[in-house]
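RESIDUES AND SHAPES:
===
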Amino acid sequence: MPTIDLYWSMRSPFCYLALDRLLALDAEPGVTVSVKHVWPGAMRRKGYFKTLNENYTTYHRRDTERLAAYLDIPYARPRPDPLMFDKDTMEPLPLDQQPHIGLLTRMGVLALEQGKGMAYLDQVMRLVWGGGQQDWHLGDHLAEAVGRAGLDFTALSTRAEAEADRLDSLIAAAGNDLQAAGHWGVPCMVLDGEPFFGQDRLALLQWRLDQARNA
């Protein structure tokens, strides 16, 4: 049975924009998509934004918005951003000062351990990135999304806090595995040791998967 390792960040718009196609891939007979949660690139690489071209922000926004329109997927930059920054340095705040990305990512790992990894992404990524709910972190919005994934939010969030050290170790290890697999960005799909980076490589991944099935 082919297994595709899917390296994923809860802060990545391109992960979100690939979601429907990855859910369809996971639903194919004999295919398993194994989610590997990693921290956002800005957390994994110090000085991340200082190395970007000055056109990055403008182009990134244009590219994500037109891709969403092309795919006919509801989309908007989340408010608030799941990743919090120091306003003076534009470096991410320390992990213990990250209430959103820490919770979202740790709960994602716990969802995986309960066999609900893709269901969690299906509901929570749409809440955060779908543009239908500002202040997605307030009230019952997140709890309801987690519930729609077949999970208990209270239990999941309590465990995410209590088991933070263990979960953070797993997330850091997944980041190391992504690097070892031959890439650094997300979404990155790895099939039989071959990495396919980006939502625009999903057709190429499908081609390689079909080759493996027919071999």
